[in-house]
Each structure stands twice: as structure tokens, then as C-alpha cells.
Amino acid sequence: LAGPQQADAAVLAARAAAPAWAGTPAQERARILRNAARLMDERRCDLAALIVLEVGKSWQESDGDVVEAIDFLAYYAAEMERLAGERLTQPVPGESNHYHYWPKGVAVVIAPWNFPLSISTGMTAAALVTGNAVIYKPAEASTLTGLAMVDLLHEAGVPAAALTALPGWGEEVGARLVAHPDVNLIAFTGSREVGLAIIETAARMAPGQRAVKKVIAEMGGKNAIIVDEDADLDEATRGILQSAFGFQGQKCSACSRLIVLEGVLERLLARLVPAVEELRLGPPEHPASDVGPLIERAAQDKVRRYIALGEAEGRVLARAKGLPATGWYVPPVVFGGIAPDSRLAQEEIFGPVLVVLPARDFDQALELANGTEYCLTGGVYSRHPEHLQQARRRFRVGNLYLNRGITGAIVERQPFGGFGMSGVGSKAGGPDYLLQFMEPRTVSENTLRQGFAPAGAE
What is the pTM of this model? Predict the structure, then answer.
């Protein structure tokens, strides 16, 4: 693992490499990303297997991770071609005014373990295709997947000097990179605690620093699904199960609060409870397994503490059976009788724990849904057109899903990202994302002149 000295050396190398990579035509940078997408597609099964092995995703979830990474490469290549070149701002006789973009310089990408290929690829590809030299720090739990991505990008044509892999502990390597005066941009996905620390550190000017650092941070969610009285309950149950317990609830977009209109609560639970109890826990490489292990022992201990809190404050409505004897497994649990302002209903758990909150009407359901500091994803199951319109107007989330699950955003189709305490920056996989990695410039020239001065004339 790298340490602070290697971090300093990586920044020095990236700074030296930045001008040449920035001077590479945007079309060439886009071509390299498309080449990487082709290579990744050819190795789709191998990369998915690595994700299953390293972080415990199911085959389906791991394959989706690879496909999303491919989508990011192709989409950002096309977006860079759209944004490249100069644009005439306004036609004015005797004057030329053009608008264009420059890369920011040295970018640090700090990646999460829960989407070890797709989010890593998305942030890294965006920084590279816009002309920045990149230092990539994978999450400690998914270093192998991160290094496989870096090797693939180098093979696709990214110069070694323009992309450096720096695996190490976040509190050592990540903190050193964020504080370095020669770093211009930090792209981060992870916990709110770490994200806020990065924002705070980046805001402090270091000796020798010549630019304000840009921070793009996606920091999590406490996401809710509302089930209306006229909802299709079978469809809602399927969406809730996948949104709450897919990849063991270890997604920032996962559903952890289920807000149900009182008139339909018992009928929904009659479907949801047996469905949860029948979920099969087991190794993620086994196709029969519905729920795998958590990422590490610390995560298991943390989720168990929340479950103990739920047992003390409320009541267990459903709990999956058949817990394996060994491994970092936690059974999916559904709680009732939990106060909306309790820790269980307010804090991001990052595990298979779901809290059911009853609502007397749709207005109160929206109030409950908006009752956290996070604003990432949310969903509504309803066949009431006016209620769906109310959700569009009042549900404070970055990604709102109506009559479908709330996880699994697709690049370009559903640009992803939130606000509030869910993060800062524009949506990944959307038309504004690359703009965050560049500096806009305007060049104005007076074209009313008397002839030309030939080269070499005094």
C-alpha cells in the first residue's frame, strides 16, 4: 500500500504529465474511452467474477456494475465530443467572441467499494476525457477491481503518466492527496462523514496553492418508498424487496424507510413479510442466494447494533431465516413501531434493515419522506395521478422513481445524484457532469484591423 510519500510523488508526476494530456485532442481522448469500453465489454464476465469475489455482489448485481462502467465510458466520450471546440457566443460585426473549456489540472478520484468498477470508472473517465491528469485511490476493500480498471485504461491508450493508481488507507493517502496544494479537483463517493471532511479540508488554502479546489462528493442517502392506498401491492412488494435488500442494502440509493398509507398497511405487510422471510442467505457466487454477506466485520457489527436498537425501540415485523454459520452475514429485517425521528429512521445504516412508517394520508407520507437530511432517491407506488404530480412537486430527492424500484439508475437515461446531505455536484451520467471537471474561458478579439503583419516583420 502507498503512503504519504508516494502520494506526494504521485501529485508531482501528475502535475508534470498534465500539460501533455490536456494538449491531446478531445477526439483522441474520446477514442481512448471508447476503446476502453470495447475492452471492458470483451472482459465482462471476468470483471464481474472479480467483483463477486472481492465485494460479495451477486452475479446479476456484479454484471450490472460492469455494464454501467461500459456505459459511462461510451457516454462521457460522446459528451466530450459535444463540449469540445470553440463556440461563438454572439455574432457582432468587427468582433469575435468564443467560448471553450480547459481542464482543471490534477484530479484525485477517491472511489467506493460498493460499486467498485462502475463508480470508479465513471469518475475516472470523466476526469480523463476532460483532459485532467488523474490520481486514482481505490477503496481498500476493492483494490483488485480498481487496479484492473486502471490496467485496462492504460491498455486502451491512456498514458501511464496521465493516470496513476495509488492504493492505500484513506486516512493516510486520501487525506494527503486532498490537502495537497497542487491538486485542483477531488471526485469522491462514500460516506457523509468522509465527504464532509474532504469538503472542509479542500476549503482550506495550503501554502503554495494557486487555485480553489473543486469538490464533487456523493455522500449517501436515507431513502423512502411511499405506498399509496390504490397502489399495485404485488408490484410494490417486488420493488421494495429489490430496493431494500439488493446487495444487502449496501447502496446509497437503497430503500431503508417504507412509508405506507394506513388503509393499505396490513395488506402490504401480508405480502412483504413472507417474502422477506423466504429470502435465502448464502455465498454470492451461488445463483440460489438472494442475500450475501456484508463487506467486512465492522459493517456486520454496525448493522447488528442498529438491529438491537430496533428490537429495543420497536418490533420485528419480518426477519429472513437460515443465517449461515460463518461469514459476515446479517439477515434482512423489517421493523415496525419505530418513531420517525429515531436513529433507525434517520441515520444511514448501509445494511439490510427496513423501517415501516404508517401515514394517515398522502400529505403526511410526503412529510415523512422529506423528514431527513438526505435528498438522494425516493419512490412512490400509486395509481392516483394527482398524488404522482404532488410527488413530482414536493418529494425532495435527486432521483424520483414512480411505480418502480429506486435503485439501478442507468447512465444518460436516469442521471444520478442528490442534494442536501446527499452530496454536492451535478449528476453522474448526465449532461452537466463533465462541466465540473473543466474551466470555462471566453476569448474576445477585435477583428477591425488594417491588414496583417507578416511573420518576421519588425
Answer: 0.96
